[in-house]
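Morning run. Coffee first, then this:
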Amino acid sequence: MKKAIVIGSSTGIGRALCVVLGERGYEVGVAGRRTELMQELRGEIPSRTYMKAIDLRRPNEARQALRELIDEMDGVDLIVINSGVGSSAPSWEEELEIIAVNVTGFAAMASLALDYFADRGAGHIVGISSISALRGVTTSYSASKAFDSIYLEGLQFKADRLGVDVCVTDVKPGFVDTPMTEGRSDMFWIAPADKAARQIYDAIRKRRRHVYVTKRWRLMGWLMKVLPHRAASWVQSRRQG
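And here it is:
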C-alpha cells in the first residue's frame, strides 16, 4: 500500500485530497496546525491514517515534526505541501506571515522532502502554488507563490542531477471553493475542492511536472503571461489565492 503525507490538510484542497488519496488506497498522514479539524478529517478517510501537528511559522520545529511523521508511517511515497496563507490587501504584519509560511515554511518542507526521497532513491513531491504566481499583482502572496514554483523547479533539476527517481509536481490552482475564497462574489470558474483534489490526484498518478487546476485555468495561465499589465491586474484582483 502506498503512503502519503499532506501538509496543510485541515481545510480546502488539502482536506479533500486526503480523502481522495484514502479512497485510492493510500495510507494518509494528515499534517497541519488545526488539530481539531484534522481529528474530524481522520474519520472521513477510508484507510489507515496518522496525524501530526505542523506549524510552518516555526520551520525548524516543522522539519522535526515531518521527520517524526515519516518515521511513524515507516516511510512514505508522496509528500504534498499545501499549506499557505494569503490576503488581497495585507498589512505589513500580514505580509510577514505570508512570507514566513509561503516562502520559509514551504522551503523547509520541500527541501526535507527531497533529501528524504533522494536518500530513498525515489518518491514524489507535490507543491500547491497558485495561478497568482504568474503576475505580481497581489504583492507578497503572488511573490511567495512565484517563489514556490521556482523552488519546485529547482528541486526537480537537483533530483535529475542526483540521478534519483523523484518527480516534483507544481500545481497551480485557479479559484477553488475554500475558506480563502468564501464570501467572494467577484470570482469565476470556482471549482469544488473535491473536483480540484481529483484532478490533482490524476496529475500525481500520471507524474505530471506541472498542472493547472481545474484544467480550464491552463488557458487563463497562458493569458496571464501575455496580457498587458492593466488586463492582468483585472484578472488577478479577483483572487486571493
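The longest helix spans residues 92-120. Good start to the day.
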